[in-house]
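Issue: copy button drops trailing tokens. Both records pasted manually instead:
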Amino acid sequence: MNKCMELQYQIERIEDVAVVRCSGRLVRGAGLDGFRRRIEQLDRLRVLVLDLSEIQQIDAGGLGTLLLVRRGATQSSTRLNLVDPPVFFRRLLEATHLSSVFEISSLKDALSILRPAQCPPRFAIA
């Protein structure tokens, strides 16, 4: 298998917010299992953002893993947000009636939810 097609991810965590940048194939296998286990290890999160903009393929195993991640997030009162999934990914979510199950947004929208509730937006006066 082409190494660049394997599932790769990078987790950045700041306090109670984690952003996971994913690339490659979100398909059944050892890489997907490791991804799920690593996500499950993240604790005390307020927001979990999965940046899916670089995902090139997804299968039923990938969808199942996203549902498991969602269930874990719901159980721990963590807000899960899928960011910028490619068009084919959105179509798959719509075809499987899962688009209403996940919160899907652009990066800009996701950044606005990352701001803690007690911090109102700041504006610069020119």
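Record 2 (pasted manually too):
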Amino acid sequence: MTIQSYLSSLLGIGENISKGVMNLIDAISKPKLKVALISYYYQKPTISGVGIHVQNLAKYLVKHNCEVHIFCHGDEDGFYKENGAIIHTIGKILTSVSDSFSKKRLEYDVFESEVVKEIIRENSRKKFDIIHTHGALTKAAFIIRKVYNIKWIHTFHAIEKLRVKKLSNEEKQFEDLISWIEHTVNYCDGAIFVSNDLSKEGIKTYKLKSKAIIPNGVDLQLFDYSPITKKNVLFIGRFSKDKGIDILPKLIPPIMSVKDATFTAVCPGSPANGELKEIRASIQKMQDKYGERLKIIDKPQDQQILKELYQNCQVYIQPSKYESFGLCILEAMATGRPVVAFKRGGIPEVIGNSGFALINRGSFIYKVKELLENKTGCVIMGKKANKRAKNFNWNLIAQETIKYYEQVNK
């Protein structure tokens, strides 16, 4: 007798057992999927949208009866439990390379070698059903897939070989290395793309066995609607050219020309030399000029702090040159803020008709200034944005991800 039939007879409700109870019984009776999520970025606070994605995915996979192990970068080797998931941290790698970009690439490589060892140890206790990689690091999963024949799914948050073309000259020196590593995705069992636009690029670039389009999500319990109270423009993004950081010096003066307007930029990263250092210097000069009206935050911020920053803005901007989805856009929308962005990648899919995806700098600046002078219009558009953001519910996204796990694992 199955669990379902046994409980039905025990409760005396036969065929009338509720659908909700049956779904609960199904979940309990199914064996737990054991999932390894590999992401260099996870620890809080993180500068990476990939890290935020993995934090939320892990939490909701656990809610849907998965055994989740996360392999990520940390201050030291160890493990702990968070929201029901087990976090395996790989300690900082100390290298003798002084160049920050070279150092980071070397750290990524050593990190993946350590991940292989950690996964082998955990797999010996109970075999993983799925290895799920996020971001640019795929070598560890490729090796485990080949040796242990564990199904491997990769989520494309970007096509790295295309994204690197939008980076600084110093970062572009690793274009061949990045492309070589990402080439391993040709051997994954399934690929998830966070937008339709990214999927089109992915299938042109790689030969994939299977694919699914599952968008990013937003934590609607944290990022909820808030009234507009301050005449502030907000930007959040890594200090990187693909996020449009080099455009910021051209956007700040026109925004400052609007009476009583302020500007806040959260752009973590302190480049020591090269092209990005020059951009940082030009922004610093503007900060000296505009004083308290221009606030630059160069350290990663916790999600609770970011929530407050969204609440304290009237307009959110995303001047990215490359953007496969735009998580910060979605968080701003959930808070009820109109978004002005460039029409790049997956941004139009996220914004829909509840924001502005523009094609050139002139129209971008005009729209930001127009919105700053029209609080009522911002409120109307912000409410539309909040409503649209509710379509990106993490509970539904986790369910779709598990369905894809099961499809690939057949």
